[in-house]
Amino acid sequence: MVTPREDHKFYILDIIEKSEAPLGANQIKKELANVGINISEATVGRILFGLDQEGLTIKEGFKGRVLTEAGQNALREMRVQRERKEYGEEFFKILDSKSEQELIEILIARKVIESQLARMAAINITPEIAKQMKEVIDLQAKYSKKGIAAEYDVMFHKLISKAAGNKVLEAMLDLIRQDSQLTPALEYIRKKVKSSIMVDHQKITEAIINKNPDGAEEAMVEHIDNLIRDVNKYWKK
User: Fold this and answer.
1) What global pTM score does this model have?
2) Were both Cys, which of 120, 179, 184, 219 would link to 204 (CB 3.0–4.6 Å)?
3) Is 170 in the same domain as 100?
């Protein structure tokens, strides 16, 4: 659990790092208020003194504080820890327990099945499902910027399965995707490597709605290949 003092420490380091010039206690107090933290200048001063003692900040004469190299490293680690809290520890266990090769094998299996589901969806798509796909794409675009679009990714792929109308392939895909933490884990990986699936999903949707089986299959293969590329890139980092 993050204590208020730890929270204040994080935001103060973050504010100092983002500033182009050294910052004093009064300036930091004002910046903290902008993120909803209202503490006195004296309290900020005490926290800064503690950061100096830890070697995380250093005074530049009367100008204010800047981060030391140790402070930059500490802030980077704090961001990682806070990100873990934000995304939830469960899927980090998935990443810790699965090797790069295991995730790639899952994606390869998905590519085989979903490329055929996309082809069938383009043949069998109905106006109702086409409308639902467009709505999901819009929602995914809206929430992907906030990093909370994983559920719409699942909905998108389920709609393709539904449109395809092949119960056997649909069941096989459900079996592969039964680990509910894999989707947010992959979303996290994409965020870390600065990748996006929106263009991929739009291509797939366009091909399916236009009843283009070859195009839908090719777009799905490209999509899964991009996910495999992201996994490889993440592990190299």
Assistant:
1) 0.58
2) 219
3) yes
